[in-house]
Design brief:
It contains ten helices and eight strands. It has an eight-stranded parallel sheet with strand order 7-6-5-4-3-2-1-8, covered by helices on one side. It has 261 residues and is of the alpha/beta class. It binds (6S)-5,6,7,8-tetrahydrofolate. The site of (6S)-5,6,7,8-tetrahydrofolate has 18 residues, from β1 and β4. (6S)-5,6,7,8-tetrahydrofolate binds next to β1 and β4.
């Protein structure tokens, strides 16, 4: 599966302090560890504490690129912060994320095309974050239509139906599985489906188990990428094993070893 390492995010205290003290080593160490753990992309989010979000994003991208070649996922709700990151990107890149209303999608699809970037699109619009299946799928349809209009390669489109905490509303996990199943049917080939997996267990006491269980169930429903804690080895192994069970990888006695490299 395509994994996006979540750890370079200013919401974590070590990263917040590294930003404040311009301590490149902390960030580079996280970039290397997540790369070694198998991250396909490294998410980069400046968080809310940074005074100058544009220059902080540039600095993070630059120090990460000094350490690893792993593609970066520029994570911000603000277009200017994404654009600042794009100015200094050297390798493949992902934009995380665009909201799913047509006007916003026009801007982000254009930008993604210009930079040959992958693009995460959230199933939310000006009315907010839908909490039901049908509105999420309706917005996913708009995203697929826009991607088609802009002749985007579907392999570059990642739809994120916005995973909420299991402790917020226990009807949501089953809704999400239904949404994944429906998104897979929207086009051939279908877009990728992704979520911020750690949202699921935020503020709970069994984070690793909850994340691992939901990820396994989500993979059976069609999820093929996640923004996640790639440093959680049990979680990574559960992802590999689930994909093998779904026949996306050949079984052998050394299937874990084979997939880890
Ligand atoms: N979708 C997309 N992008 C996203 C999200 C999403 N980016 C941000 C976020 N959601 C995904 N990243 C995280 C990172 C960490 C946590 C949750 C989501 C997290 N942190 C712990 C907590 O808050 O309890 C620990 C924090 C700490 O140790 O300080 O859970 O949904 N496209």
């Amino acid at each position: 599966m395509i994994t996006i390492g979540e750890r370079i995010n200013g919401m974590f205290t070590d990263v917040k302090n590294a930003i404040k003290n311009k301590d490149a080593k902390v960030v580079q160490e996280l970039a290397k560890r997540q790369t070694d753990a198998g991250a396909t992309y490294l998410d980069v989010n400046v968080g809310t504490a940074a005074a100058d979000q544009l220059n902080t994003m540039k600095w993070l991208v630059e120090v990460i690129q000094e350490a690893v070649k792993t593609p970066i996922a520029l994570d911000s709700q603000k277009l200017e912060v994404i654009k600042a990151g794009l100015e200094v990107i050297k390798n493949d890149v992902m934009i995380n994320s665009a909201q799913g209303d047509p006007e916003t999608l026009d801007i982000y699809m254009e930008l993604a095309k210009k930079h040959n970037a992958a693009l995460i699109c959230l199933t939310m619009n000006k009315d907010g974050v839908p909490q039901n299946v049908d509105t999420r799928v309706e917005i996913a349809v708009t995203i697929v239509e826009k991607a088609t209009e802009y002749r985007m390669d579907m392999d570059k489109i990642f739809i994120d139906p916005i995973l909420l905490g299991v402790n917020v509303d226990q009807k949501q996990p089953a809704y999400m599985l239904e949404v994944f199943n429906q998104i897979k049917l929207l086009s051939d080939p279908p877009p990728h489906i992704t979520v911020g997996l750690s949202n699921f267990s935020q503020g709970t006491k069994e984070k690793s188990l909850l994340n691992r269980t939901f990820l396994t169930m989500a993979i059976t429903a069609g999820l093929d990428t996640a923004l996640m804690d790639v440093l959680d080895k049990d979680l990574m192994d559960a992802a590999i094993c689930s994909e093998m069970v779904m026949n996306k990888q050949i079984y052998s006695d050394s299937f874990l070893k084979a997939a880890r490299k």
